[in-house]
Amino acid sequence: MSTADDVACASALVQLQGMTPVRLARLLDGFRPGMAWRAVAAGAHPADRRHRFTAEARGVDPSEVARRYVAAGIDVLLPDRPGYPAALVGDPGAPAVLCASGDPSVLEARPAVAVVGTRSATRYGVRVASDLGRGLAEAGVVVVSGLALGIDAAAHAGALAAGPDAAPPVAVVGTGLDVVYPEQHRLLWERVVSVGAVLSEAALGTPPHPRVFPARNRIIAALSDVVVVVECHGRGGSLHTVEAAARRSIPVCAVPGAVHSPASRGTNGLLVDGCTPVRDVDDVLTALSLARGGPPVRSRDGAGVPTEGHGPEDALGRVERAMWDAVEDTPTPVETVLLRTNLSLAALTEAGLRLTSLGLLVGGAGWWTRA
Amino acid sequence: MIANIPSAVLLGVDGRPVRVEVHVANGLPTFTVVGLPDAAVRESRDRVRAALASSGLPWPRRRITVNLAPSGMRKGGAGLDLPIAVGVLVASGVLDPGAVAGHAFVGELGLDGSLRGVPGVLVLADTLHGLRLVVAEANGVEASLAGGTCLTAPTLADVVARCSGRRPWPAAPEARPAADPPSVGTERAGDLADVRGHRVGRRALEVAATGGHHLLMVGPPGAGKTLLANRLPGILPDLDPDTSRTATRIHSAAGSAGATTTLLRRPPFRAPHHGLSAVAMVGGGSAGLRPGEIGLAHGGTLFLDELGEFPTAVLDALRQPLEDGVVRVSRSQGSSVCPARFLLVAAMNPCPCGEGGVPGACRCSPAARARYARRLSGPLLDRFDITLRIDRPDTMELVGHDAGESTAVVAARVAAARVRSRGRGVRTNAELDARSLDRFAPLDARASALVERHLRSGGLSARGLLRVRRLARTVADLDGAGDTIGAPHVAEALYLRGSRALLLGEEIR
């Protein structure tokens, strides 16, 4: 049987109602996709004894399904065909069929690092993720993440901002490749497709469902040489990625956060459990064993932590200075700033507006944080 | 014979005069009431008959017809018992028509002939002004607040005896001197000095109380939102005589306790539970369009705790009264206009888990947060001049700071600032329109620059600007600043106005 036939049958299998990654893997265990398809349609497949798919498969023309994938610009990758990510070959949880928008070959001959974290990230987390994404891309490392809100998006955006010579990012999503989720990331999604690749094991049209994301996380872990968790809560999707990485003996790094910050509870817990702490991209590169010989790609003090005594805050007036000193790097309630400065609310809010317009502070509802 | 007795019934917060006509004629003994009586009035037949028998008064064994004129209007309430009884007595010749001339009667009868009070006597007394009003002893003080002549009696037998001149009427009851107000707000709620921390919250309360700016507090459970709101009535100044009278009338019509002994001097504080119906909120119902919570809050505060839990229909019913200061309730039996000018104070959590607002703290999905935020309509949120984040006080930060000012200190400042508003021809700064703002709240150069920057960056709309200028005027009044508004006042106003998107924990960009 031809490759084209296998690809068509594989995509038709993926599209069957009720197909899950586990069922698909069973159907394709020891069967070529073409054979598996015909066995399912004939009701003779040993992994489909209850003929769950038989009736539907009889009414489907695989080449028709294949044309839909071609029309959507989506490649169907099979483990023993060129294009399938080498990192997944031999993986115990490797997807039997992987769909790809863009160019999945960017993963070849490049190291990959997963940068993941919570959707409800703080400014701090978003900034670290963005810095890491950009730094890693500039160092020629493929940034792998999930295109979710918060940390994922920041990591992708950072990697895309690295310029044309940098390594392109790769996203693994839980929905079908024609279902952009979350909707506000459509532009980001398209930019990742245009330079890198967006991968999914889900059928076209698969909607976002809480079930699909943990499964997606195992692919993120399996594709990567190192997993970096930037911010995560005490429980949540990022810890699925960590678990999947641990099972594959892939090193996990975590970015330390304020011990009071709920968004860093998970990451700080990982550090206590012995994960490698990561401050900047050099730490990640070290973990990747890429910092071999010679000076690191980027020097550490360029990484943006405001160094004491050299910032624009030196030129501030007395009130602004007092306010700047009272506001921390994590969101500080207005109440606390009032108590620390003993200013009136009018004086404080005016200073706050000035510091915000200078770009030194970021204000929210009832809090400020250093930018 | 025919008797014609003046009385009145309630419709909303207004009284409607009613003539009780009683006709006693020969024929089979019957007792009918016509003229659109409701169930309570129809039952009064049985009460009147029993009361007359218990009082040792003869019951005419003839054909009795009672007509309540004007007969096209529905009448409710038990207050017509007494006029019907008096009418029967006059029509059957027990009482001399001359003895009751110039009198009006309002009261409910017990089966033993005792006279009971009814709600809304202050309003009814106003309606029957010019007549000598006979009411139950329980209603005496309230009726005398209206200023007319008021007579009281404990039983129906006493009414008959006093009308026919066999016994003298007692001296008119004295209204308790208004200098001794019950101070509802301050006594129950405790003092502002008990609130530790919450400098921003206290300031917002002060600004809201001074300028009549509606206030929305958003924060996690246990942060102190209710604590703060309960202390708001204490810092509000006393009601002006006009509002005091209107508010007392509304409370009287609603039959709420405490309003009957004196005119309300302290602003009322209403905090309905979120399970209330739209009718309970705006007023209505079958029995005479009883005033709702917003009417009862007239001149004072309406506090809605857990704003997000109120049914959308109930909240949206607030929009028109908030705009007009009155609520119009129309039903088939008539329509009523009830004054409803109140300070709206609301509290809610930022999201279902309650911890949202500060980035990273919330465990709700973005979809759940958006759903929660959608429960409140934009137009309603728009009515809040002050939207504020209230957080749990950080006890560590409070160490070494002295307690805040007491209610008395803040109340004095509020009262002083309100005097300045009155000089501008408005009760509170929230009522200033654009033209008065130009005149009374000009911005200095730095303040203008600040406002311009916000307008240009899209953070402020033209309507938002008006609100900010009103708020800034109030802030400046409280600080004792001159006529010109400075940049700090505008900055504080911008902060107090807040951002709805940020408050409800929407995504930070």
Label this structure with key terms.
heterodimer; A: alpha/beta; 9-stranded mixed beta sheet; 3-stranded antiparallel beta sheet; B: 509 residues; alpha/beta; 4-stranded mixed beta sheet; elongated
Structure description:
The complex is a heterodimer of chains A (371) and B (509). Chain A is an alpha/beta fold and 371 residues long. Chain A contains 15 helices and 12 strands. Chain A has helices at 3-15, 21-27, 33-42, 54-58, 62-71, 123-138, 151-160, 186-195, 212-223, 237-247, 265-272, 281-287, 318-326, 334-341, 345-357, and strands at residues 74-77, 98-102, 112-116, 142-145, 170-172, 197-200, 226-229, 252-254, 276-277, 332-333, 361-363, 367-370. In chain A, strands 1-2-6-5-4-3-7-8-9 form a 9-stranded mixed beta sheet, sandwiched between helices. In chain A, strands 10-12-11 form a 3-stranded antiparallel beta sheet. In chain A, β8 (252-254), α11 and β9 form a beta-alpha-beta unit. In chain A, α1 crosses α3 and α6 runs parallel beside α7. The longest helix of chain A has 16 residues, at 123-138. The termini of chain A are far apart. The model of chain A is unreliable at 290-310 (pLDDT under 50). Chain B is α/β, with parallel strands linked by helices and 509 residues long. Helix content of chain B is 39%, strand content 17%. Chain B is built from 24 helices and 18 strands. In chain B, α8 packs parallel to α19 and α8 (199-211) crosses α22. Chain B is elongated, with a radius of gyration of 28 Å. The model of chain B is unreliable at 178-187 (pLDDT under 50).
